[in-house]
Amino acid sequence: MRFSLISAALVIASIGACAPMDEPSTPTAEPSSPTGPASADPDISLDTLKTVTEQLSSDAFEGRAPGTPGEEKTVALLAERFEAAGLQPGNKGSWFQDVPLVEVSLEGDPDLTFTGGKQPLSFDHKEDMVAVSYRFTPETEVKNSDVVFVGYGINAPERGWNDYAGLDVKGKTVIILVNDPDYQTTGLEGPFEGRAMTYYGRWTYKYEEAARQGAAAAFIVHETEPAAYGWNVVRSSWTGPQLYTDAENNNMDETLVNGWLTNEAAQQLMTSAGKDLATLTAAAKQKGFKAVPLGVKASISFDNKIERQASRNVIGILPGSERPDEYVIYTAHWDHLGICEPVDGDNICNGALDNATGTAGLVALAEAHAKAGPADRSLVFLAVTAEESGLLGSAYYGANPVYPLSQTVGGINMDGLNVAGNTRDVVVIGGGKSELENYLKRALDQRGIILKPEPTPEAGYYYRSDHFSLAKYGVPMLYAEGGDDLVNGGIAAGRAAAEDYRANRYHAPADEYDPNWNWSGAIRDLELYYQIGRELAETEEWPNWYEDAEFRAIRDKSRAGAE
């Protein structure tokens, strides 16, 4: 997620340094614009936005953590509001899609050791490293595992890049660098889109690829700039109970251990192995890099407490009148952190902006579309669970879609709405990826709104909210936000409002409903989302990813199988 007025919750990843603004790359062939007249601005209900946001973020909902009484109240309210809006239950007569979750908690602190180098090393949990197991087993042990430095841990055949080429890492421990090899590029040109992060740069991908390669353990080297957050974020996120979606095989196809090393710990490891981290990093940035066995062995063990629970996505649908088996989707996550660390005696993280506002926007859009009547295609409204735990609800929907993803035209995600006032600008997160941006540009041009490039593309915010869970299955998904240039106050006021939220309310009990919020920007943005969704639902076009987007091949294969 990216921090701005419309989605101040993006601050979780905004700690890293900012890059100069670069113009997003444009495709060589401009896709056709949507046909037909522009949709009239809908009547977005301000009362709905205020009422639903205030209800969801009240203390009675206890911060909306999955698996709690707060969830029960949340999903019941959403089903009630969807029905009142005029939607139909979206899952075979039910408003809900069950999402099976597993909570895994470390019992005791693991100790990571390396032997066989110039000196034995022992790294402390939290201070030097963090480690978890994605497998649902009570005991985890990796013993005397050969250690290999695999650079950025990327296998991208379409880009001619494979850090695992000629390498067998089955049963071994791999050390991986965060981000892409060209993240320090000033522009957006390079083997991995230059300064802009691709999915290959995300830590989630690196663990996935290590598992595919058969590694026993995978540790990512933390560095603040390419990670876009400090070690404090890694430590706080990886040392408490971890939620995962349940799996019949107990995730036994995952690595035994996934974790992070501080940069200092990684340097000590390389020194003990007779290597230099800076030299290895420089080599890893070059195409044709060969993985480097370090000649040391890793050992780690810990116990896990396994608890299974269930949560729910909430789904409503407005069936299409002409092509009801083709779908346009809106998404927002309903969950937040629940009971959290007290501040001044308040221990409820209410999550008013993050993401009661986005969920209220989902309800308001449902009302507006239902009031306008059915479109040619069906419109789906999906409120997902467990975003704060790693996009789990949307990931479950992506793996278990209620409506075929090959028949899902595209969609829009909302993760926090702008409650600071209207802006002169809009930013597309992950700009230059899909033809959905043509629909947005058309809507912006009609209103005289400026489209600005994403200021920190190296942080990879496109991969940090629920739209990504569908994008990785090929569905074109748009994630746009109001910018920082407030109509009343300009850029200085916009940045001040964003900084105030970051410093005082983000992921804290103070993220509470404020009756003095200025909803004009939220309404303007929802009008944009309405127009884009309505045009997608009325056209016969199937917008695709641009040719160089990492999801294009997946979409082409999906659509070929549907035709």
Task: Give structural attributes.
about 575 residues; alpha/beta; Aminopeptidase; Glucose Oxidase, domain 1; 15-stranded mixed sheet; three-stranded mixed sheet; 14 helices; 22 strands; globular; disordered N terminus
SSE layout:
Elements: H1 46-56, H2 69-85, E1 88-89, E2 96-107, E3 111-115, E4 121-124, E5 129-132, E6 139-149, E7 155-156, E8 161-162, E9 173-177, H3 203-212, E10 217-221, H4 224-227, H5 231-238, E11 242-245, E12 257-261, H6 263-272, H7 277-284, E13 292-318, E14 323-333, E15 338-343, E16 346-349, H8 352-372, E17 377-384, H9 392-399, E18 408-414, E19 425-428, H10 436-447, E20 450-452, H11 467-471, E21 477-478, E22 480-482, H12 490-504, H13 520-538, H14 552-562
Parallel strand pairs: 6-9, 9-10, 10-12, 14-17, 14-18, 18-21, 19-20
Antiparallel strand pairs: 1-13, 2-11, 2-13, 3-4, 3-13, 5-12, 6-13, 7-8, 13-17, 15-16, 19-22
